[in-house]
User: Fold Lipoprotein from Albidovulum aquaemixtae.
Amino acid sequence: MKSSVTILLVVALTLGGCGRLRESRLNPFNWFGRSTEQTATQTVAPAVPDDGRILVAQVTDMEVARQPGGAIIRATGLPPTQGFWDAALVAENSGFPVDGVMTYRFVVAEPIPPARVSTPQSREVSAAAYISNIKLEGVRQIVVLGSQNSRSSRR
Assistant:
């Protein structure tokens, strides 16, 4: 009888403490959600002037997937024609968040010869970046920029 009371007391205290986990990284519901789209409102200058790559026209999809020791940010973009290559997510501000926002530029290299337009599915490019738990501390939002729009995910 005494052990049953002890077990009930432990369970009650444990469940009561769950309310404090709402803001904790340990809470499984406190992770980055689905991405939302925003229309581009400003021109973004390239982070590396001699890079030669440009922003992808549209960021069509973005997700933040939890991984051991951090997260992987995956994005899909739609350039205007086929043949774009060397896609990458380039971190702004040396990979550190500004006011809780981590920003990545989705860049691609242009095709050398003129390329045809074809279908959107045949033009899609993908890129990903890993971000460690240390850099995720204090990050409330991750943004991926394209030239016509951006996508973001909040926690």
In short: Residues 4 and 10 are 10 Å apart (CA to CA). The helical segments are 2-17, 120-123, 133-136. The first strand starts at residue 36 and ends at 39.
